[in-house]
Design brief:
Blueprint: H1 10-23, H2 27-42, H3 62-71, H4 83-86
Helix pairs in contact: 1-2
């Protein structure tokens, strides 16, 4: 665990301490729990790719290669040497 400093207004600090005392916990544990819940609720969620499997391509390897197939047209210098060939990172 890493120690950090959080600045609270006096009213919020008083409320956190009162809650912690009622629950028989430390103020730090109340703050950690509240912060963890906030982060989980606000984590960026990736939208589902609803267009996958929406049609028939005639290919049987789409499920295994869907990312490669989707992104192969996005190569900046398509037709030229790949990044692996040029030695660039």
């Amino acid at each position: 665990m890493k120690r950090t400093t959080v600045f609270l207004d006096e009213g919020l600090e008083r409320d956190v301490k009162a809650l912690a005392e009622r629950q028989g916990r430390t103020a730090a544990s109340v703050v950690r729990e509240a912060l963890a819940e906030y982060v989980v609720r606000n984590r960026e969620k990736r939208p589902a790719l609803s267009f996958l499997a929406a049609g028939r391509s005639g290919r049987r390897d789409v499920a295994e290669r869907h990312e490669e197939i989707l992104f192969e047209e996005l190569e900046p210098h398509r037709g030229g040497p790949s990044r692996a060939d040029s030695g660039a990172c």
